[in-house]
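seq:
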Amino acid sequence: MQPKLIIHGGAGNAVNDAAALAAIRQALHSIVGDVYTRLVAGADARAAVLQGCRLLENNPLFNSGTGSVLQSDGQVRMSAGLMDGTAQRFSGVINVGQVQHPIDLAQQLQQHRDHVLSDFGAAQLVRELGLPMYDPVTERRLREWMVARSHNFQVVSGSVAILGTTSDSAVDDELAPDPEDGRGTIGVVALDQDGNLAVGTSTGGRGLERVGRVSDAAMPAGTYASAAAAVGCTGIGEDIIDECLAARIVVRVEDGLSLQQSFERSLAECEKRQRDLGCIGIAADGAICWGKTSEVLLAAYQAGEAVGDTLDLLEAFAVGMA
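struct:
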């Protein structure tokens, strides 16, 4: 079977800066190229997903791993989920800090009896594995948090300061246009030569959230796979959880709809309920799909020919096929 791959770097407001858009495109295309080369060489779907997530976690353009946003208390707490479609096994970590690759912890838990660990349990797993301490905070994210704190974490001119999209000129001066602004979770979905599917998701969270808040990344709502399809989500976590979106799309494929039909029906329901999100997926027959209700979905894919992406597609509601 021809391997297939799709990745995303978040969903949200449109990227209006040409240089920022070019940087995001270059990063996504480069990662797709690296991971797809490994798939063609015979890597299984889960290994490809792990590689892709690590590369995205390493890139401070995206809100995962290095470059994760800070929570209300100024700390970074990250979450990640991994699902192997062949085994139909989910694993994940919630609100873990001081680790470079949260997705690696999710991978470790695939072999454990306890598949999902929260903050203290995830920290204990880090110690058991002997992983080195790692600080994922970037200067950019710290500056965002400090500006937001100077505004008392209040909404300024209709936008939360940390998003960098407020029209307040003083805040704009401090938060100049940057490719990181307003982005969300990262995710990878892969189909390997043997027809196996896997999906991985990693996030730094919403930014400025209440301590203890749980994202969709480490839930089947945002990360789900079976032998029929695999789907990863991004956007407003609470919206994704309310829709149980990833699992809903996969179950519809299992019930006989095509992947495109499942995306169209599910995203239409999300649009009707005014959700703000995006998702990517691959079916066992090799179909690649993406969809969004947000302004932009930062996704790139490889179906066997050239790398494509969704960055220029600015419809408020769209479903596409690769």
